[in-house]
Amino acid sequence: MANIEDDPSGEELAMPDVSPFMPMFEVFRDELDEHHDRRERIIKASRDITALSKKIVRQLQSPIPPPIAKEINTRYDSIKGLFISVAPDLQGLNAWRYQRQISGGCQEYVEAVSFQHYLETQKLLTHSEAQALVSGGVELTADDFILGLFDLTGELMRFGITNTATSGTLHGGRRGDGSEGGNILGDLRSLRANFESLDISASISDGSPLKRDIAKKVEVMKQSVEKVENAVYGMIIRGRERPKGWVPDLSEGQERGREPVESY
After folding, report:
1. In the prediction, which pLDDT does 18 show?
2. Which residue in 198, 115, 99 sits closest to 149, CA to CA?
3. pLDDT at 134 (0 to 100)
4. Is residue 180 a contact partner of residue 114, using CB atoms and an 8 Å limit?
5. pLDDT digits (tens, 9 = 90+) for 138-153
6. Using alpha carbons only, how large is the chain's radius of gyration in Å?
7. What sign for the dihedral angle of Cα 193, 109, 173, 160?
8. How many Å apart are CA 164 and CA 172, to the nearest integer?
9. How far apart are CA 58 and CA 53, in angstroms?
10. What does the chain look like in DSSP terms, one character per residue?
11. Nearest to 165 by CA among 230, 222, 255
């Protein structure tokens, strides 16, 4: 019902109940609500993927009996379901609009699958192989893949040091295809050399995750390789002086102001 107001001339004027701009702002409201709901779904899925991937990595650090292997496969199935659940929200332009929200989960997932791939084949997972493991058509960007491999060096460091302390040797041997492989220290040094040769100055935008995080990732990666080198040095030079099962203090270096290596 129209509102009635008195005109200065003494006549009554009818005022409209609803502003003509209201329908437009209602559309804006619905679009913003949809945006925030979509964003929260993606963030939650990314966090769940991150948590499951960290659990997989932790389990891969020790020998894998059949019950644990089954549990790992169950976690992979859960991650697959999470990617599928947010795939409709990450299509077209939305794949880039919400890339930062899904980025952390993708990086952690790359770390988990590449770590398992290395343990099984002593080879590095390729970008195309990693993309094939991401379900639902969610795009795995090159930035997230590379940053995930940076995190892999921390897990290789922990695995190498533990293996050296418990067995007195470095992990290595024949690769999955039957070819002769090196050892984990040689592979880490190769990764370090390739990472240090990356030139990202003109190839990526200023707002990309790689350009934002690479300086810190490179420093942590160098620390990881140095820790394995020091462990091997201790094994060769002073190994006989240490009790069986001795593990070096991984916090060494942090007291000198270094960044801690990412862990679970």
Report:
1. 67
2. 115
3. 95
4. no
5. 999 999 999 999 999 9
6. 27
7. positive
8. 11
9. 9
10. --EEEE-TTS-EEEE-SS-TTHHHHHHHHHHHHHHHHHHHHHHHHHHHHHHHHHHHHHHHTS---HHHHHHHHHHHHHHHHHHHHHGGGGSTTHHHHTHHHHHHHHHHHHHHHHHHHHHHHSSPPPHHHHHHTSGGG----HHHHHHHHHHHHHHHHHHHHHHHHHHSS-SEEE-TTS-EEEEHHHHHHHHHHHHHT---TTTS-TTSHHHHHHHHHHHHHHHHHHHHHHHHHHHHHSGGGS-TT----TTTTGGGTPPPPP--
11. 230
* pLDDT of 264 higher than 50: no
Question: Is a pLDDT exceeding 70 seen at residue 203?
Answer: no
Rounded to two decimals, what is the model's pTM? Answer: 0.77
> How far is CA 195 from its chain centroid?
17
Instruction: Indicate if the pLDDT at residue 202 is higher than 80.
Output: no
Residue with token string 């991984």: 250
Mean pLDDT over residues 49-61, rounded? 91
Do 79 and 116 contact (CB within 8 A), yes or no? no
- In sequence order, the 6+-apart residues with CB closer than 8 A to the CB of 125 are 110, 113, 114, 117, 118
Calpha distance 259→253 (Å, rounded): 8
**Res. 188 pLDDT band, cuts 50 70 90:** very high
Q: Tokens standing for 192?
A: 């370090």
pLDDT band of 178, cuts 50, 70, 90: very low
The overall average pLDDT reported for the chain is 81
Dig out the tokens for 200 from the structure.
């990202």
Q: Is the pLDDT of residue 28 over 90?
A: no
Q: Answer yes or no: are the C-beta atoms of 155 and 262 closer than 8 Å.
A: no
CA 36 from centre of chain: 23
**Tokens at 216, concatenated:** 């810190």
Q: Would the CA dihedral through 77, 81, 82, 86 be positive or negative?
A: positive
